[in-house]
Amino acid sequence: MKKIFLFLITGLCLGLTGEIFGEEFKIGYIDIAKVFDEYQHTKEEDSLLEKKGTEKETQREKMVNEIKKLKEELDLASDKVKPEKQKILDEKIKTLQEYDRTTREDLRKERDNIVREILKEIDGVIQELGKNEGYTFIFNERVLLYRVETYDLTERVIKILNERYEKKKSGATKEKK
User: Fold this and answer.
1) SS3 of 71, please?
2) Which of 2, 3, 19, 120 is the residue whose CA sits 20 to 30 A from 52?
3) C-alpha distances in angstroms, 122 versus 33, 61, 68, 112?
């Protein structure tokens, strides 16, 4: 068992430095987080989500102000109308709570879908790069304990993604006209 383990480790070490069993290895690594953050599509989608969040917050503030106004009216109301005003206030608070919950859930789902779509695009480019350029392995930078910058493919992937995204965007703009 020890011999098999030693053989595999030796083979792996030799493989990472060049040739094993007559086969040439080509390796690279990518900082996926950096690719994700610097991809123009990610930046635009983040901006859109932030804008939606701001719009939802504005709508929420209107609801909060309405509740504050109702509380002030309740404090000044006569005992005769207080129960009815309290009921209206309770309904408004419940509506606000439901709005908060659904807004958070909707924005989270939308962001998850966007992230999934972008990661799929990134993976597609990595797969294509690996096949077209004959890479044996492309690693995620996070799993590496040591690396040589020569094998870093991060900037190349970012460049490919952004170029494709610009072409896609300009093609969509032309179609709209």
Assistant:
1) helix
2) 120
3) 11, 38, 47, 15
- How many angstroms separate the CA atoms of 91 and 85, rounded? 10
- Token couple for 53: 């969040």
Residue 69 CB contacts under 8 Å (≥ 6 apart), including other chains: none
User: What residues form DSSP beta bridges with 70?
Assistant: none
Give residue-wise pLDDT tens across range 37-94: 999 999 999 999 999 999 999 999 999 999 999 898 888 878 888 888 889 899 999 9
Nearest to 85 by CA among 93, 62, 144: 93
pLDDT-above-70 percentage for the chain? 84
Q: What CA–CA distance (Å, rounded) separates 122 from 159?
A: 11
Which stretches of 18-150 are DSSP H helices?
Answer: 32-38, 40-76, 82-132
